[in-house]
Design a protein that fits this description.
Order of helices and strands: HHHHHHHHHHHHHHHHHHHHHH
Distance between the termini: 39 Å
Strand content: under 5%
Helix content: over 70%
Length: 432
């Protein structure tokens, strides 16, 4: 790491991260301020920040979020989320822990088929309504769903953006991810349910009066606009199909989401301005600032230096290397967003696999994916889904602080990453 700009970029990033953690100022202001400083010191420039595929704002993430937020905004007007909230509570007999288990399992499964960001955008409104009906604090349920989305997203190629990057670099298929990571994801979802029983036990307060009120409701009466609901569900189905068929159609999820949003606005009677008002603009601004800051670290060689040091430490030791890569990826993905981290590590991992003479589905690729996906649970800004849910919670006056999220995230990450290390050792070394 050479030059004053490299060290200045590190100082800016650390200071910004400290401000986000301390919550002295709003995280959006901190991220945009950090991005501005990165540009001011020359750690990055306009071309890199706005047009670079590897060191700039990831517009695919931004527009995926925007498109799905617009679709969700239309669906909210139909009463669909109220319907689902009442249905879920009645199926769980209004027992708080049963409700959480149902939401966690649904989130994990949906995250494997969609992506984790889209899933939390759809599940979070239902959760907020469920908690309102049962007079429960929403934060524990939302946090548990974030964990489930990142764990469930590990299972498939389309479940988490880092998996798409790995698949592209390594030449892996949708089925490769199912065979190698879906069993681990299913096991860790069960582990998460057990952890939730203890981590959030103080939140499972059963209010009999509220429960009886909800049980007496007829969910069908919640639907306010059946025609709009049909239009929205048709478009959402097409969007989901587009996500799942990504390996065949080769349309990026962001394109599919924008096409779906545009189609829904065109065919429905909802005003465009009303739809755009549902977009979480502060969340999108936070992502943009974060991407620019991390781009500064990439452009000045900071992340590259860290990655090369990791590669030097690994050498040709497959077992030690896979464990180091898994652990380091989990730690670093909890500090920086896992998308740019994997984009930086993918070519280095490819070189490692080539040096070891491995196949395309080499253990090093799975170690990178597992570490990056699960490490995103560690902190409030470790993965895209985390940031999105914090934005939704804040907008609905149910704010989740950085430390409130992270104190649970660290526990979940340590447990799941440790179990994953055992899975990697058992599957690829002990039983190979």
């Amino acid at each position: 790491m050479n030059g004053w700009q490299s060290w200045a970029a590190v100082v800016v990033f650390v200071a910004t991260y400290a401000l986000i953690i301390s919550e002295k100022i709003h995280r959006v202001a901190a991220a945009l301020g950090g991005a501005a400083l990165m540009l001011a010191i020359g750690a990055t420039d306009d071309k890199s920040a706005f047009f670079s595929e590897h060191a700039g704002v990831d517009w695919n993430v931004i527009f995926l979020l925007m498109g799905m937020m617009m679709i969700v905004g239309v669906l909210k007007r139909t009463g669909m989320f109220e319907y689902l909230a009442i249905w879920a509570v009645k199926r769980a007999r209004a027992r708080p822990f049963r409700v959480m288990v149902m939401l966690v399992v649904i989130t994990a499964l949906a995250s494997a088929l969609l992506d984790n960001v889209t899933t939390v955008l759809l599940i979070a409104p239902v959760t907020l309504l469920v908690c309102e009906r049962l007079a429960l604090p929403a934060a524990p349920f939302l946090i548990a769903e974030v964990f489930a989305s990142n764990i469930g997203g590990t299972a498939t190629l389309v479940g988490d953006p880092p998996n798409i990057i790995i698949a592209s670099r390594a030449g892996l298929t949708f089925n490769d991810f199912l065979v190698h990571l879906a069993p681990l994801s299913a096991f860790l979802t069960v582990v998460l349910v057990v952890l939730c029983r203890f981590l959030f036990r103080s939140s499972f307060v059963y209010d009999e009066t509220r429960a009886l009120e909800v049980m007496a409701l007829e969910e069908r009466e919640a639907i306010r606009d059946p025609r709009l609901l049909i239009q929205g569900l048709v478009v959402l189905t097409l969007v989901v199909a587009g996500f799942v068929l990504h390996p065949v159609l080769h349309y990026e999820p962001s394109i599919v989401a924008l096409l779906g949003a545009g189609l829904l606005v065109a065919v429905s009677a909802v005003e465009t301005g009303e739809v755009l008002s549902e977009v979480e603009w502060p969340t999108l601004a936070f992502f943009a600032g974060l991407f620019v800051m991390i781009g500064g670290l990439i452009e000045t060689g900071v992340i590259g230096e860290i990655s090369r040091s990791l590669a030097d430490a690994i050498g040709d030791n497959e077992l030690g290397g896979s464990m180091l890569l898994l652990g380091a990826s989990a730690v670093l993905s909890g500090i920086v967003d896992n998308i740019p981290y994997v984009a930086t590590m993918a070519p280095i991992t490819a070189d490692l696999v080539h040096t070891m003479g491995g196949d395309p589905d080499h253990v090093m690729w799975w170690a990178l994916g597992i570490g990056a996906d699960l490490g995103g649970n560690a902190t409030a800004i470790g993965a895209s889904a985390n940031v999105v849910v914090l934005g939704i919670a804040e907008r609905n006056r149910q704010p989740i602080s950085f430390w409130q999220f992270t104190k649970y995230g660290l526990v979940v990450t340590v447990v799941t990453v440790t179990l994953s290390a055992g899975y990697v050792w058992l599957r690829y070394f002990a039983l190979a």
